[in-house]
Design goal:
Helix content is about 20%, strand content about 25%. With about 325 residues, the chain is α+β, with helices and mostly antiparallel strands. Strands 1, 2, 3, 4, 5, 6, 7, 8, 9 and 10 form a 10-stranded mixed beta sheet that branches. The longest helix has 12 residues, at about 115-125. The protein is globular and about 55 Å long.
Length: about 325
Amino acid sequence: MRAKLLHGEAFKPFSPCASPFLAFETDSYCVFFKPAYMHSVPASAEDSKGSLLTWVRDNYPSLESAYDSLDPVDPDPARSSAASTEAACARARRELGMLSRLDSETSGLVAFARRPEVFFKALEAQISGRIRKKYWLLVIQAFQQEGLEGSKPRCLSWDTGDPVLAGREFSVESYFRSYGPRGSRVACLGLQTRLEEVRKTKKKLSPILYRSDFHPLGKVREGGDEGLPSLAGCLAWEASISAGFRHQIRAHMAWCGHPIAGDQLYGQASPGQNAESGAIREALLDSSPASPARLFLECHRLELGSPGGGTEIFELAGENSPKR
């Protein structure tokens, strides 16, 4: 079942948006659009403003009312084991049924379950990989030989040539670990290196293997090919994930040597990178309205289970969206 966009039939990719808004509403879910550079949840206990969760709490009190009676220390024994933990109950009440988060720099759709029973069923589906999220992204075309700092191997290599430049579908799998000052970034670990890292590092490693699937949408040309904004030296892609880790798509693309356009955390130019990539990054930092500084990553589609069976699809799609 495809939900209807509440604000018209079309939503151009990476449309400038200063404030969040309710994009879809069904009996089971409220799906909001989070603009770029807004936190999904408060960044700290002292930071009670500037997050999507705070905005939702202030503007949609019915969601908070739905979770007021949920006791986080007394989970319902009738629930399945995947959703019966105290932590899951506490999360549901604290975050009003928010099912996933987006990085502060990433724009796009974030779903909230309207009732606790919907939240726990969706959480089960998420744990078993039955929830899908799709993203639009623009990536730097020029290959970055330095790779992703802290990752092992440093840069992902391909036996059959670079699929990004060839424009063919591919998938990336890795474990993650925190990296950099105060763990502000993540690094990718290949299958062969994880056991070695477990033995010698004190940093926490992700417990499961995370996978991102990438599909080419064509080269962005003058005028905005495929509905995405025009950005010379970039390629348009779609990413699909079921289980998500912090910065997953951003790190996976940087690991491939093609960071996402506008990514100042994983795509900053360093000595040795070619001049073309540096010029693209300088253009993205231009504060003019015609070239706003932003990360070109946007969650445009959510596929969530319906409590009555089937799938509910929420998609920012229309005449201006990429054609598949």
